[in-house]
Amino acid sequence: MATRLDELDRKILLQLQQDTTPSIEEIAKKVGSSKTPVWNRIRKMRDAGIITREVAILDAETLGFEACFFVLIRTSEHDASWQAAFLKALRERPEVQEAHRLAGDIDYILKVRVQNARAYDAFYQALISEVKVHNVTALLSMEEIKSTNALPL
């Protein structure tokens, strides 16, 4: 169920989605309010689970993770034990940045960030040694055109 937000809440969240490092005073200035109401609203949005965490976003290429693969997985297995093993394997692999279960012809799509194709192959070999998959297609991203975690408030 969607939580009701007023215009000030939205302005605060838009600011926080861009950068959480400014002080409460700076955020209050940007959204046209004072410090105390902004702090109280942020605290309430944290308590309500709207703001779940604050993280540092790292530059993957600067750190040597130059290859991003989108991995399409089809499986012929759909029982609970296979799914549990598959989800465990994904959760234990830091290379997997995102994993989604899909409707349609493809069962899962993964976003995998690694140093290079050789590192992807090592990831792939480890994954298929742990869980049986019917078909895997890996697509190398040639260029990241847009990447954001911001919601369109």
TrEMBL record:
Entry's Gene Ontology BP terms: regulation of DNA-templated transcription; response to amino acid
Gene Ontology cellular component terms for the protein in this record: cytosol
SMART domains: HTH_ASNC
Domain (HTH asnC-type) ranges: 5-66
GO molecular function: sequence-specific DNA binding
InterPro entries, A to Z: ArsR-like_HTH (IPR011991), AsnC-type_HTH_dom (IPR000485), Dimeric_a/b-barrel (IPR011008), Tscrpt_reg_AsnC-like (IPR019888), Tscrpt_reg_AsnC/Lrp_C (IPR019887), Tscrpt_reg_HTH_AsnC-type_CS (IPR019885), WH-like_DNA-bd_sf (IPR036388), WH_DNA-bd_sf (IPR036390)
Keywords tagged on the record: DNA-binding, Transcription, Transcription regulation
PROSITE patterns listed in its UniProt record: HTH_ASNC_1 (PS00519), HTH_ASNC_2 (PS50956)
Matching Pfam families: AsnC_trans_reg, HTH_AsnC-type
Protein name: ArsR family transcriptional regulator
Gene source species: Pseudooceanicola atlanticus
